[in-house]
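lol ok so funny story. i was supposed to be doing the assay writeup but got distracted and ended up predicting the structure for this chain instead. priorities right. anyway since i did it might as well share w the group, maybe its usefull for someone
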Amino acid sequence: MNRILVIDDDVDMCLLLKRFLTKNGYEVVLTHNGKKAIEELEQHEPNLVLCDFRLDDMDGKELLVKIKERYPQIPVIIVTGYSDIKVAVDVMKLGAYDYVTKPLFPDEILLSIKKALQTKPSNTRQEANMVSAPQAEDEAKKGKIKTITSGQYIFSDSPEFKAILKQIDLVAPTNYSILIYGESGSGKEAIAQEIHKRSRRKDQPFVAIDCGALSKELAGSELFGHEKGSFTGALNQKIGNFEIANGGTIFLDEVGNLSYDIQVALLRVVQERKMRRIGGNKDIDLDVRIIIASNERLLDAARRGKFREDLYHRFNEFSIEVPPLRERKHDIMIFSKHFLKITNDELGKNIKGFSPEVESIFKNYVWHGNLRELKNVVKRATLLCETDYIMPTVLPFEITNYARLQFDDSPEESSSVIQFLVPEPEPVTVAAPAFMSAAPESVYTRQYEINEHSLKGASIDAEYELIVEALRKANYNKSKAAKILNVDRKTLYNKMKQYKQFNSDL
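and the output, tada:
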């Protein structure tokens, strides 16, 4: 259960928040001044701090600085009865995760808390710290890696990230809007932060918004703010995130989830660099750089009518592709050792590393959850480990048995796939494709007798290789392999059965 420290000199407000948050599944600790709050932080180690801006013994900015100096990983949400854009910008610069005004709306405060806890430890919008690519790997081996604060991210010296860093250096000094493509958990926000850090806006706010977590009703208010009385429940003015980010950078993750109405409003922001709060009658000039991210191709979404094509072209002044972790084998153990170092510090342990068997499992596993999944696996294994090195016995069952689990759709399907992958004695041996070079040759070699000048044999060979490659990329999950091949499952099964007529190994 996540623990929240509530700091407010209003006793009634504290009790109200405690009842409300406890009802919603949180453990709550209350305190009424800044000095006591520091003591409670040391004693209770909360997952999140909800802090009133005006306290008897110090203001919210002073307390925020003290909290972030000692506990930079804890997200802090500042609560105030005053809607002041300068205060909002100041506390965001100092590392506050969010800034909300009284009276508090239940949906709004719950959404802010949920997002802060989900993005932990990337909960500060401060400038990120970065190490050079070669230094990252050296320090990874020594267990002394410095990280970008967003997602505790590092940049390795893999060819993929050398290319990304080169793109960042190229585009950061400009004012181009940027589109970052990448799967969930691959580090898109960290790249956006690095672009901001290297830009001329680095001393201004960096504000990150997860558009996938915004409801249709709250999205407009979160992005653009609202005026008092603009809709039912709007009891006070709210400053939107675009206004908070003015002068700096705003990062919109999973932007394809925004509704059509919000897309229309965004188009005006991009075209005219102006916005208007909900219920407002005055335009607000904006000087903000927009970086967006998506795990789907927005042009494809536009052609399906899910995303405005004119907005896509406005955003796509420059694009960066973040490859998934499974395509960056070089990075897997660098990040693993990095996450182990962090978890050792958190748990007070001294696990030295990973056994060779675990390294092999990690390098051959398909990390669909990317860095987020890898980090969770390492944290769990470190907690369970009672030896100097992490062994396969402390890994989740689905990690150590992933390949076999993909065969278990049904007994009949399982046997057909196993036959497809394991060869029998050879008349003619054809070497495995390059992408399979890391696996034992005996698993992937195959045999069949054909005339070397036969066109039919050549087409069989090509199709066979495509099927094996697709299965390999999908870690032998037949549904995913069928999608890669752009066929349905039934067609894939029929092809596999058909090859039994030509190949002794199928």
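The longest strand covers residues 289-294. Confidence is low (pLDDT under 50) at residues 120-151, 407-456, 500-506.
back to the writeup now i swear
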